[in-house]
Amino acid sequence: YLKDKLHDRLDQEQVLRYRDMERYSRHIEELYKEVRSFRHDYTNLLTSLRLGIEEEDMEQIKEVYDLVLKDSSKKLQDNKYD
Predict the structure, then answer these.
(1) How far is CA 79 from CA 12, 14, 58, 69, 76, in A?
(2) 30 neighbors 15 (Cβ within 8 angstroms)
(3) Which of 74, 72, 53 lies closest to 62 in space, CA to CA?
(4) How far apart are CA 73 and CA 77, in angstroms?
(5) Residue 67 pLDDT level (bands cut at 50, 70, 90)
(6) Between the CA atoms of 47, 43, 67 and 77, what dihedral angle is there, to the nearest 10 degrees?
(7) Model-level pTM greater than 0.90?
(8) Higher local confidence (pLDDT), 59 or 72
(9) Is residue 48 within 8 Å of 60, Cβ to Cβ?
(10) Among 82, 51, 60, 64, which residue's Cα sits nearest to residue 72?
């Protein structure tokens, strides 16, 4: 009887660990997608800044800078990064 109980308990623990690992994997995948998106956006922002600098267009540079500040403050305040 005790052996069966122990076996059942171990099976339950294994199921819980498996579920936790699945949840963790999904979370990591979502973070990876966000990092890829960030890299893409960051590259575009740097390109926009470079073009503004090359054309000496201070208005464009200010717009890109303001956009970066606005977006980064929203994204980095998310609790999922804690």
Answers:
(1) 30, 29, 35, 18, 8
(2) no
(3) 53
(4) 6
(5) confident
(6) -160
(7) no
(8) 59
(9) yes
(10) 64
CB-based contacts of 61, cutoff 8 Å, min separation 6: 49, 52, 53
Locate the domains of the chain by residue range.
2-81
- pLDDT tens string 8-53: 999 999 999 999 999 999 999 999 998 899 899 889 989 999 999 9
Q: What is the pLDDT of residue 70?
A: 80
Secondary structure (DSSP) of the chain: -HHHHHHHHHHHHHHHHHHHHHHHHHHHHHHHHHHHHHHHHHHHHHHHHHHHHHTT-HHHHHHHHHHHHHHHHHHHT-GGG-
pLDDT band at 57 (very low <50, low <70, confident <90, very high): very high
